[in-house]
Amino acid sequence: GGGNTLVGKLEQKINGNPFNIANYSYDHLNRVVVKDGRACMTLNEYNIRGFLTHIAAEDHSQPTISRFFDERLRYEWGFRDKHYNGNIAGITWSGGDGKKHAYGYTYDSLDRLTHAEHRHLSGGNWVNTDWNYTASNISYDLNGNIKTMNQKGGSYPGAAQNMDILSYQYGSNSNQLQSVEDAGTAINGLPDFRNGVSQAIEYTYDQNGNMTRDDNKGLTVSYNHLNKPAAITVTGKGSIYYTYDAGGNLLRKKLDSAGVITLYDYFGNFVYKSDVLQYITNEEGRARPIANDTTAHLTRFVYDYFVKDHLGNVRSTVTAEPINRDYLARHEMATAGVEQLVFDNIPNVRESKPGSTNPDDGMAARLEGGNPNTQVGTAIMLKVMPGDKFEISADSYYEGENQTQEESGAGPIISSLMNALMGGGTYAGTPVSELPDNLKTISGLLSNPVLPEQLRGLQSNDNPMVPKAHINYLFFDSKMQLVTGLSGSIQVQGGGPSGWHNSGSVTIGPGTVGNNVIQPSYVIIYIDNQTIGKNVWFDNMRVEHYTSKLLEEDHYYPFGLTIHLEQAGQSNLPRNDIKFQGQRHDNDFGINIYSFKYREHDPTIGRFWQVDPLSEKYVHNSTYAFSENKVTSHIELEGLESFSIQPEINQAWRELKANFQNLANSVNIGGSAYVEMKEDGKSIKPTVTVKTNAGDWMNYLTHTNTNQGGPSFFKFDFSVESSVEKKAEVKTLIGSAAGGVQINQKGETTVTAEASIKTPGGNLGASVSQSSNGTTTVSGNISVEMGSATVKAEASVVNKQNAVGLVSGFGVEQKVGTRTFGFGASA
Are 685 and 648 a contacting pair, CB within 8 Å? Predict the structure, then answer.
């Protein structure tokens, strides 16, 4: 109808051709309840207060509906703590593998997160035995700077470890971080904090407050006139150079690694890498160019969708058109350039093919048992996602009858496999923390001390009359542990003069191996020969990878750190860099930051690199704090300010803020504030008032006493006037024994005189009291009706034994429908 501004359909045109990306359906309050895209359908549910309670991203293209992502938000039930003010008590979620996880949240009096307890569902119970991503011991100083934070992380084998036990040190009278110490253990491949140095000053800043050096990450940063990074140099790895337009929008990113240059160009929604279009972004995801079946030219587009949680974090990247991959190792010199891009170790084992007279089929892989350089041959490691399916096969040949002979064993085979995947033994003795990221992953997958025994178990039924040579497939879970129910080995068949034999193909994927589900992780496929003194040849090693719609999956700790390995995705596609709160993740050379429009956020320590450009509007908050540390129910608006995800609370806050600003323009008063929400006169939100003595504030701000405690907190509530009488009334209680005279437990007597006048426009009141202890108090108050808002102010002058003090306060009440919101201050 007329005036309807709701979006019903999202469409994108490329080369003039329209493509319908998504259709939207709304409820009677104009909230999106169904988003129907080509790759998935997303459903949203809300409670009676308008708070989001459920997000489900489903695949309706198959007879059986499956879910890519499911999240449920609880406020006043389901977890230990109950909240009625919009704070989230806890969430549960599951990804493509269907495994359920949960976070239960704890807050301080200012709604800042202090604890996020992680659990996963196992056997009907919520436990943390297999995975544990708990964030705990999160504490803050009076300005909101993080003082301590602990985080657990998954590892092998068994229980999780304390990957982070962080303590923060700040400059004197400053919000600037000086150092961070980590008493936790650095875990292979996890993105946790690395304690690069231990010294008094580990972070330095320029005159604008921008962080210019991080000694723990080993990087230095220079900035342009917009306080955006112009260059980042990481010691021993390389440099990153950024170019922006006048508005601070990124135009180019240049990577320089020992003279090897890689360019990324950003033209609006178009992203190029080395002059090749990677994708075109849109409101729901991206359009990715691909080649047709006959040429390498990019001729059409495939659409990927970003599935987001309640904070706008991208949890899943789902494609509308899965593309299958066929990897074939023929070991020929003519195909070496292509094969060696995806397979490892081919040059080490390539030799003439026995029995072949075909010039186009003259090479194969010869594996010599017992030789650490050639007992493992052609190998490939691929990222896998739930729903993927594989078919694996190879040809094999050996000469003569097999006799029972000595075997090299599983342990040496794994050592040779690690060297093959790492490109040789050049990394021997190198600390894991110093390896490139892909090599850290390989080390993590193959360093599990129980892996040799597991491999022996997979080959326990081998035929002793045939060489102990195999094509192997090892599937790992998100904790880098072998999934024996999915993994296996195919032993070579009989050889001799009869020639080459095909192993026969094995299929691994949904519905093929019981209830085992491929998790977001990796598979390693390789050939080996463990029989000492017997050569075995392999050729035509084929791996067919049938991909699912789920391309990538990401889950996060509260401040944005990614949960390791669950961000796995298909390695042959452009990685989706849009991650936490919908911002670009920059992890080149391991810098691990999120680039908001105005500032860069470091999720390893939960802080921004730069000062908040709107810091003067938020004097109560540290200039480097992320989202005021309300990280479960608030988002960062472009790196400028914290914003609640609950629209009703934001509306009330905006109206209260406007009235408060009007009052502040005419009344200059210091102190502290509270926020209150009432419905039909009944409070439905605990009211927190921050009150401070003016002298305490001055001591705290000027630091005349370094042990000064600062502000204290207590509960306070304004009463609500139910009506305003249209008459004047004067009431005097001088010398009245009924109420004008009070005697306290010390025997001190106080005489009070009060007067109040109620008029159609508001209230005026005054009182005088005289105590026998020498204290005289004169008070006045005023209440003025301003449309739907009520402005209140009061002041008292206290004279006690010739010492005069001033106590004052004011407040604003704003009605929104049946609810009343209050804001006030006192000093």
Answer: no
Sign of CA dihedral 222, 226, 227, 233: negative
Q: How far apart are alpha carbons 573 and 382 in whole angstroms?
A: 12
Return the number of other C-beta atoms located less than 10 Å from residue 737's C-beta: 7
DSSP-assigned beta bridge partners for residue 752? 769
Which strand (E) or helix (H) includes residue 350? Answer: strand 350-352
Please state whether beta strands 314-319 and 550-553 pair in parallel, antiparallel, or not at all (unpaired).
antiparallel
Report the interhelical angle of 437-446 vs 410-421 (nearest 10°): 170
How far is the C-alpha of 667 from the C-alpha of 793, rounded, in Å? 9
Strands 161-170 and 177-182: what pairing? antiparallel
Average pLDDT, the chain: 81
Count of positions (residues) in the chain:
827
Nearest to 387 by CA among 107, 113, 96, 665: 96
What CA–CA distance (Å, rounded) separates 376 from 719? 80
Structural domain containing residue 19? 9-323+551-617
Phi, psi values for residue 447, rounded to 5°? -95, 0
Q: Could you tell me if 447 and 484 lie in one domain?
A: yes
When pLDDT is averaged across residues 509-538 and rounded to a whole number, the result is: 81
Quick one: which of 782, 770, 779 has its CA closest to 797? 779
Q: Is 764 a residue whose pLDDT tops 90?
A: no
Spatial distance between the Cα atoms of 72 and 55, rounded to a whole number of angstroms: 7
Last residue of a domain, one of 579, 600, 617: 617
Distance CA 482, CA 486 (A): 9
Strands (E) across 188-284 are located at: 203-205, 211-214, 219-223, 229-234, 238-244, 250-257, 260-267, 270-273, 276-282
In order of 53, 577, 602, the CA distances from 310 in angstroms are 9, 19, 21
Window from 8-17, 265-274, 603-612, 635-644 with minimum mean pLDDT: 8-17
- Residues 71-76: what's their mean pLDDT? 96
State pLDDT tens for residues 76-118. 988 999 998 889 999 999 998 899 999 999 999 999 999 999 9
63, 115: one domain: yes
Compute the Cα dihedral for 95, 98, 101, 102 and give only its sign.
positive
Give the Cβ contact number of residue 360 at 10 Å: 10
* Number of CB atoms found within 10 A of residue 719's CB: 6
The answer to whether residues 318 and 329 belong to one domain is no
| Claim to verify: residue 213 and residue 285 sit in the same structural domain | yes
User: Which of the listed residues 511, 546, 581 is the one where a domain comes to its end?
Assistant: 546
Residue 160 has phi, psi (to 5 degrees) of -70, 165
- Which tens digit of pLDDT belongs to each residue from 200-240? 999 999 999 999 999 999 999 999 999 999 999 999 999 99
Please state, in angstroms and rounded to a whole number, the distance separating the CA atoms of residues 825 and 88: 27
Name the pTM for this structure: 0.74
Q: Which tokens belong to 585?
A: 């993740």
Spatial contact of 286 and 39, defined as CB atoms under 8 Å apart: no
- Whether residues 514 and 571 fall in one domain: no
Calpha distance 321→815 (Å, rounded): 51
CA 66 – CA 573 distance, rounded (Å): 23
- In sequence order, the 6+-apart residues with CB closer than 8 A to the CB of 673 are 689, 690, 823, 824, 825
- CB contact at 8 A, 406 and 577: no
Count of structural domains, the chain: 3
Which residues, including other chains, have CB under 8 Å from residue 540's CB and lie 6 or more apart? 328, 329, 330, 393, 394, 395, 502
**643 beta partners:** 635
Q: Token digits for 476?
A: 């790992």
- Rounded to whole angstroms, the Cα distance separating 750 from 666 reads 35
Q: Give the pLDDT score at 312.
A: 96
